[in-house]
């Protein structure tokens, strides 16, 4: 599994939704909460939630009871970021902290006291991947990790940020990422010019995967209550897989991409990267929905479901779950420990009342593995849409106004953007060489849909009468897939980049449930049933130096 394993292209992420949850072969000896919506109740001031693991509902309970405030939460998360981001293990997961966050938290605390909470995210600190726009007047930059966008002024908040703010969430800061969501070139995951190399919290210098690497690492050790990532091809699923998390890659068109630095409107999607399926359901219920500024969202089914209603431990009873063996067995590099854990997961799924149909191959599997149609589409879309991004900026101090300018900027600022081992701009150059929406482009777009959906996922679901597909993630490059356990302590440590290793002892891997467009509600139910049965996340923690020490008790005003 080289540097490049994650860059391979995926023909059908556009048309599917995918939900990941961690699992492992060795079943964790952890109790299963009896009610999904009342986990680990805070009983009094001496029993404050552990921020490493705290769920949104636990935090709401403590906020409502007055055991701590949102100001306390922001202070505690800032201190936790400070402990591990540049100091100690120097995880480089966070790029910026919001200078307005404390003020916003105080206002939301006052509002809670006055009139109660607006939503389950009221007063909850959320960290955003740095390609998701926030208005410059608030004090943060939106740069996709690149110095070419430092100080730029975006026209507006991203659509998902407007929804978060309306729900009362606090934007805590911006997370590091693979620069330009890994569409710059042949670079290690988790590296950006502004942020440097982000690394995993489960083993020193391990690959965090990307491109939503900082979101994943931050969620994994509680540097924020909730994080958002974006995915074009694996950028939510892979960091979720590598960092012991639950994440949702929503169907393209469920969550708005307005105000998100683009790769392709045909594949980009925004989703939660969090520690539990319950938190993922809460966040998705708030960020999903139509947005007049992203017309792909206008055809989504009405209304947005309350995804928390899907959190039922019996969701797998009587369901048929298929295993698309060919797409992961034909690929390279799945570690035997991953495959063994996957077989155990299938037993767990059977034990939860489902019929496992194995194999349940996609008719188009081989064509997907061979296809280069995705690259054709992404290259054309990236040039057009990134140029539009630069043109729409109200200001950009770097002077960069196009992809061509960006390539030149990187070349003329090598100390910032092309340090040794991080020089590649191959994706930029390939995209810049395209000449717009040609007949070949439209043909590739049609093939993507046909291979991915019509003769791919949808055909398998129909011909085997399935409710969803399930598959392991590691090493898999051609499906929107992932998670399942932790690498054993004796795994041979491999290289993932000039500064990163993978696999490595204790680094997580996961399982993904995959379904047809807009099947998130069902997939959340399946993942929840599996998560609650196994509780794998709790079986292993980050390495000691990577676990921040600050807790609410250190900041709560007594
Ligand atoms: C945003 O970038 C500007 C430089 O243009 C910098 O002065 C400012 O501190 C940055 N904001 C944050 C929150 O880091
Ligand atoms: C959707 O939006 C894109 C970009 O703003 C625009 O080019 C396209 O014409 C719009 N399509 C429709 C059907 O409105
Ligand atoms: C696109 O997919 C079709 C169907 O599998 C295939 O025939 C064609 O060669 C692919 N095109 C590219 C550019 O990979
Ligand atoms: C790791 O240990 C397990 C048993 O503890 C053994 O089966 C496996 O072969 C070992 N793997 C390596 C790479 O040494
Ligand atoms: C570049 O990467 C190689 C290993 O891939 C390493 O040996 C070398 O020291 C790196 N150079 C710098 C300047 O980091
Ligand atoms: C919040 C934070 O620590 N941001 C840092 C991210 O990394 C860059 C590069 O080292 C620093 O300049 C930021 O201060």
From TrEMBL:
Pfam families: Amidase. It comes from the Eukaryota. Residues 72-478 form the Amidase domain. The keyword Signal applies. Residues 1-28 form the signal peptide. The keyword Signal applies. Keywords: Signal. This is Unplaced genomic scaffold GYMLUscaffold_90, whole genome shotgun sequence. It comes from Collybiopsis luxurians FD-317 M1. The lineage of its organism: Eukaryota, Fungi, Dikarya, Basidiomycota, Agaricomycotina.
């Amino acid at each position: 599994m080289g540097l490049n394993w994650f860059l391979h292209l995926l023909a059908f992420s556009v048309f599917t939704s995918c939900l990941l949850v961690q699992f492992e072969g060795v079943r964790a000896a952890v109790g299963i909460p009896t009610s999904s919506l009342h986990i680990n109740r805070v009983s009094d001031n001496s029993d404050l939630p552990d921020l490493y693991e705290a769920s949104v509902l636990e935090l709401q309970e403590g906020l409502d009871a007055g055991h701590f405030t949102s100001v306390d939460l922001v202070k505690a998360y800032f201190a936790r970021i400070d402990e591990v981001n540049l100091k100690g293990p120097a995880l480089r997961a966070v790029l910026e902290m919001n200078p307005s966050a404390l003020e916003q938290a105080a206002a939301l605390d006052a509002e809670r006291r006055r009139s109660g909470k607006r939503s389950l995210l009221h007063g909850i600190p959320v960290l955003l991947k740095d390609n998701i726009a926030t208005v410059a007047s608030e004090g943060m930059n939106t740069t996709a990790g690149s110095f070419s966008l430092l100080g730029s002024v975006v026209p507006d908040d991203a659509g998902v940020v407007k929804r978060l703010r309306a729900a009362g969430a606090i934007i805590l800061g911006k997370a590091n990422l693979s620069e330009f969501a890994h569409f710059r070139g042949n670079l290690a995951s988790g590296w950006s010019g502004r942020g440097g190399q982000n690394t995993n919290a489960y083993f020193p210098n391990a690959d965090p995967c990307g491109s939503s690497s900082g979101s994943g690492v931050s969620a994994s050790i509680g540097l924020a209550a909730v994080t958002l990532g974006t995915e074009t091809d694996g950028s939510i699923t892979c960091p979720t897989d590598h960092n012991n998390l639950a994440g949702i890659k929503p169907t393209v068109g469920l969550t708005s991409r307005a105000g998100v630095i683009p790769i392709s409107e045909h594949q980009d999607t925004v989703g939660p990267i969090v520690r539990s399926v319950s938190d993922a359901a809460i966040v998705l219920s708030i960020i999903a929905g139509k947005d007049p500024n992203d017309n792909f969202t206008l055809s989504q089914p009405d209304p947005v479901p309350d995804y928390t209603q899907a959190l039922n431990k019996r969701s797998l009873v009587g369901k048929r779950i298929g295993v698309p063996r060919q797409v992961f067995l034909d690929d390279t590099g799945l570690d035997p420990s991953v495959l063994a854990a996957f077989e155990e997961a299938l037993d767990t799924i059977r034990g939860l009342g489902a019929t496992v149909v194995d194999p349940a191959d996609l008719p188009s599997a081989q064509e997907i593995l061979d296809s280069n149609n995705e690259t054709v589409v992404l290259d054309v879309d990236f040039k057009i849409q990134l140029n539009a991004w630069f043109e729409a900026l109200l200001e950009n101090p770097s002077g960069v106004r196009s992809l061509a300018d960006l390539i030149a900027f990187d070349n003329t600022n090598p100390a910032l953007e092309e340090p040794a081992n991080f020089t590649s701009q191959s994706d930029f150059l390939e995209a810049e060489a395209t000449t717009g929406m040609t007949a070949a482009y439209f043909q590739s777009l049609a093939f993507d849909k046909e291979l991915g959906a019509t003769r791919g996922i949808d055909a398998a679901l129909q011909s085997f009468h399935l409710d969803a597909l399930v598959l392991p993630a590691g090493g898999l490059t051609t499906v929107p897939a992932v998670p399942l356990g932790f690498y054993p302590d004796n795994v041979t440590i491999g290289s993932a980049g000039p500064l990163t290793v993978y696999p490595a002892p204790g680094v997580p891997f996961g399982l993904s449930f995959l379904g047809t467009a807009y099947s998130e509600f069902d997939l959340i139910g399946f993942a929840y049933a599996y998560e609650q049965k196994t509780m794998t996340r709790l079986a292993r923690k980050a390495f000691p130096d990577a676990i921040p020490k600050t807790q609410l008790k250190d900041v709560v005003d007594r």
